[in-house]
Amino acid sequence: MAAGDVTRRASITAPSMHRRPSARRGSLIKNPQTQSQEVPWDIIDRCALPIVLCHALAVVLSALLNAMHLSQISVFTLFLWFSISVTGSLWFYHNLQVTAAGKAVLVTGCDNVLGNALARRLDDLGYHVFAGFQNKAGNIDADMLKEDCSGRLHTLQLDITSETQILSASLYIVDHLPEGAQGLWAIVNCESWCALGELEWVPFSVIRRAMEVNLLGPARLVQVMLPLVRRSRGRVVLASSILTHVAAPVRGVHAASLAALDALAACLRRELKPRGVDVVVVAAGEYTTGSAWLSEEKLLEQARDMWKRLSDEQKGAYGEDYFEQALRSLEKYTKSPDADLTAVTRALSDGVTRTFPLARYTPVSPREKIKSLLAEHLPRSLYEGLYSD
């Protein structure tokens, strides 16, 4: 066995000597020379139903014209003509963008690489960015972000689980809005707490923390900031996960908290539609979010803490081998030192910049997209037979 395999297979409950991989912004966006595997699901999602309707309309219209002896035009010809017209119109509609001048955006969770990358992207596009950090004081990432970006970017101390900090941030934003701006153009919540483990293993304090960060914090943030967003008829963008539609072991607490956020967003979208405010959910894939903020060191740290907290009866019931196997099933999400955030940052920025954003973006791999579609549309017994993990 190779030395590298010995290191990797060391006991997950033993102290780890791994050094945390670097999370510098230079590694966040894929090298332009590397072939991108991104699939434009937003275009496909927007065009799929209209194309189906085009075919249905072509069938009906062709039958009517033939029955009335007005024309012998084929279904295929009509379908092709309708499809080209509709696709061209949708492409123009999809790519309309708002102007960035005089628009302010609040981005939370800039301590993690996803929020940091998004703040940089929006600053490059010309927006006034308020970048919220859970721990701003002495944070080298906050200092580097401020140094690298334009004078339009402001860094804030903003823990979304703190009522005081949310209110302080709202006052700061009001005082530093760009000239002529009536309010915030967008809130983008990238803060997340990834709690992993089977339900019996996860300490209740960790479950509570996951709910506070992934659900209660964003809900309170939106409550406080919504008057500012409503004035500008802007939008609320929430980062979620494909796990909300795809059940998987060891991810129950994380998926449950984000599923609740998805449900909240769906209701909020209908509440705010009459007021001209869009609500967008970006459900990223596991390979994106996992490599973005789940390092091997964090995984091992969570595993060791959970194992220590289990009772002797629980340890005997599951066994250390099963425990290790369950946690090591997540190692594949920690093995890429250079996280490619191209797809998810594009989706998040599209939620801010598009004139007509989609309600839901899914920057996921083809495999994850297929699995999600099957989970939604197949009978549950058949789906669980196909995916028995």
From TrEMBL:
Residues 1-33 are annotated as: Disordered. Keywords: Membrane, Transmembrane, Transmembrane helix. The keyword 4Fe-4S does not apply. The chain crosses the membrane at residues 48-68. Pfam families: adh_short. InterPro entries: NAD(P)-bd_dom_sf, SDR_fam. Coiled coil: none annotated. This is D-beta-hydroxybutyrate dehydrogenase, mitochondrial. It comes from Iphiclides podalirius. The lineage of its organism: Eukaryota, Metazoa, Ecdysozoa, Arthropoda, Hexapoda.
